[in-house]
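hey so i finaly got around to running the thing on N-acetyltransferase from Szabonella alba. pasting the sequence first so u can double check i didnt mess up the copy paste, my clipboard has been acting weird all day
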Amino acid sequence: MYRLEEETEADWWEVEALYDLCFAPGRTALSSYRLREGVPTVASLCLVLRDAEGVLAAAIRYWPVEVGGQDALLLGPVAVHPTRQGEGLGALLITESLAAARRLGWERAMLVGDAPYYSRFGFHKLEGVEMPPPTNPERVLGIALVRDGWQGVQGAVTRANG
Ligand SMILES: CC(C)(COP(=O)(O)OP(=O)(O)OC[C@H]1O[C@@H](n2cnc3c(N)ncnc32)[C@H](O)[C@@H]1OP(=O)(O)O)[C@@H](O)C(=O)NCCC(=O)NCCS
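ok and heres what it spat out for the 3d tokens, dont ask me to read them lol
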């Protein structure tokens, strides 16, 4: 049994520790982190999954960004504790948070990640959407949260103005 909750301020460092455990060292050097610096998360979409004892099992965060001046969600980081991977927790966090994003009126979401994993949720390679270098363009993926949500949306991905 897992509890799905919105991340609170008190969860911040525990989630950071989970990310440190799940990602290669130096994760914060990735270009996506430059887009997050100094920008608050989209708090209502940042979720944690805890087991019956309250132990953190998985977490997902989102930041706002702009693509060619248009609002978009940047999904990530998402991570599942190594002892709990493959149970569907990653999928649960992604589908629940994207459903919430749709309800909140977000039109598009993007991420930098593995297409073989994210394609099952409807993500596809974005053409003409440029992450700050160095980013492999093959890993720049997006999903429309409304019909044609990515139609005509191209250009540089930049930090949200807030
Ligand atoms: C990637 C991650 C979030 C997936 O969460 P999870 O709860 O383990 O995954 P799920 O149970 O929802 O899905 C499992 C399926 O995804 C596949 N999968 C997991 N990671 C994958 C990847 N990087 N590429 C392709 N497939 C992947 C598994 O092989 C499995 O496939 P199956 O359904 O055919 O058996 C988790 O494994 C994780 O935290 N990894 C380390 C951190 C990371 O890489 N985060 C993503 C950054 S882009």
